[in-house]
Amino acid sequence: MRRSVKRRVWSRVGVVAAVAVGAIGLSLAPAGAVTNTTIGHAQAGSTCGSELTIVQPQSSLASYTVPAGGGLVSSWSGDSGAGTGSTLQMLLWRPAGGLVYTLVGESPVKVLAANSGINTFTLVTPIAAQAGDVLGLHATGSSYCGPIPGGSSALVRVGAPPALGANLDFSAGYGVAGSANVAATVTTGQCGPGLTAHYIGVTTSGIYGSAVFCLNPMGIGTLSIPGAGTAPAQIIKAGNVVWFSANGNNLRVSGYLNTSTGASSFVETRPFGVSGKVLTLT
Rounded to whole angstroms, how far apart are CA atoms 71 and 190? Predict the structure, then answer.
């Protein structure tokens, strides 16, 4: 219930649910060649049998890591299992040192029909991802969360994942000689020739959103939100701090992210007044 409220509010007020949809299918600039890259692996696997939270740092089956340049996680897949009422949720983790990972993105929780095989879900609000972010999974009931044979470093904690932006220490859990049963599509190429996509993910009072800046080599370009217009935008990097802004008649956002400490700020004053923190800014 809580997550469905998040999506409904962002579709109405945020920088970002509207931008995220537009970033894939609508114009932020002259459209580039959109590319979809699959990470992770989904197939018939083994039953979880309880509530588990998983991260997959490596696997011999496939890479579970977001490639160089980052992108938007636009869809994901998992296997249903044989039980009625089982759920799956795709998680996106960022390594924080050792076996500690920060939760930087999550899909809505999906209740799966028994024996329905591989289910694929398109994200209404795609998840901004940076290079090195790692796929994971939250599963309840008898869904097929894994392990799929292959790889040796699926890390598992019993129970639910933390809040967005919070850390989870998997050293308090256990390792599994297998791979999490989850795959995802990372979409890139949203900007036109000569422009680079920069991906941003934010939370405001627990509500998640993502967007794409299309910028030239000087860090100057545009940010567009369907229904709110297009604003001149820029990103400035000074040491470990990345500043961003977009300023137009109907659209005004600003903020920063310290990539060393994780300190951040996000403010939108037009078309709505909201504030929060930045999870991802590439």
Answer: 9
> Residues 6 or more apart from 242 whose CB is under 8 A from it?
235, 236, 256, 257, 258, 259, 281
Q: Tokens 């680079």: give the residue.
A: 196
Q: Which candidate, 92, 102, 178, places its Cα nearest to that of 138?
A: 92
Q: Is the pTM of this model over 0.70?
A: yes
The pLDDT tens digits of the residues spanning 78-120 come to 887 766 777 889 999 999 999 999 999 999 999 887 777 788 9
Distance CA 260, CA 58 (A): 24
User: Which residue's structure tokens are 């599963």?
Assistant: 139
Q: What is the chain's length?
A: 282
Tens-digit pLDDT profile for residues 217-267: 999 999 976 666 789 999 999 999 999 999 998 899 999 999 999 999 999
Q: Where are the domains of the chain?
A: 16-28+194-281, 35-186
E-assigned strand segments in the chain: 35-41, 52-55, 71-79, 87-95, 100-106, 110-111, 118-129, 134-140, 154-158, 167-169, 174-176, 182-188, 196-204, 207-215, 220-225, 229-238, 241-247, 252-258, 264-270, 274-281
Helix (H, G, I), strand (E, B) or coil at 12: helix
The dihedral region occupied by 49, where left means phi > 0, alpha psi between -120 and 50, and beta the remainder, is left
Q: Give the contacts of 151 (CB within 8 A, at least 6 positions apart).
A: 56, 58, 59, 60, 61, 177, 178, 179
9 φ, ψ (degrees, to nearest 5): -65, -45
